[in-house]
Design a protein that fits this description.
Layout lengths: L1 E6 L5 E6 L7 H7 L18 E6 L9 H8 L8 E3 L13 E4 L6
The structure holds FE2/S2 (inorganic) cluster.
């Protein structure tokens, strides 16, 4: 189990216990904690509705693949710290990660 901190769209932070050995990606973890993530593509890295900003620990994440970069490129509010949560599989190197949810809320 690792600990990551999640900041929601209005700035509230919560520490989450995240299992790193059950095969869930970070988008699925956030949904399990009832964050409002649409994930319309089901984790294929093409809808961008799981857009997050990494506030701390980016150096411990695997690099983006081309697909993730292409999708992030379509977002007007993406920056160098942007990632797609569905493309990140928690592992022990990610202890202490701090992320902020950037994707727009479902309307
Ligand atoms: S769930 Fe669609 S890009 Fe992550």
């Amino acid at each position: 189990m690792i600990n990551i901190t999640v900041e929601d769209r209005i700035g509230n932070r919560q520490d989450l216990d995240v299992p790193e050995d059950v095969g869930l990606n970070l988008m699925e973890v956030l949904k399990a904690y009832e964050y409002d993530i649409q994930a319309t593509c089901g984790g294929m890295g093409i809808c961008a509705t799981c857009h997050i900003e990494v506030l701390k620990g980016a150096e411990n994440l695997p690099d983006c693949n081309d697909n993730e970069l292409d999708t992030l490129d379509t977002l007007p509010d993406a920056d160098n710290n942007s990632r797609l949560a569905c493309q990140i599989r928690p592992n022990e190197d990610m202890e202490g990660l701090v992320i902020k949810i950037k994707a727009l809320q479902e309307v």
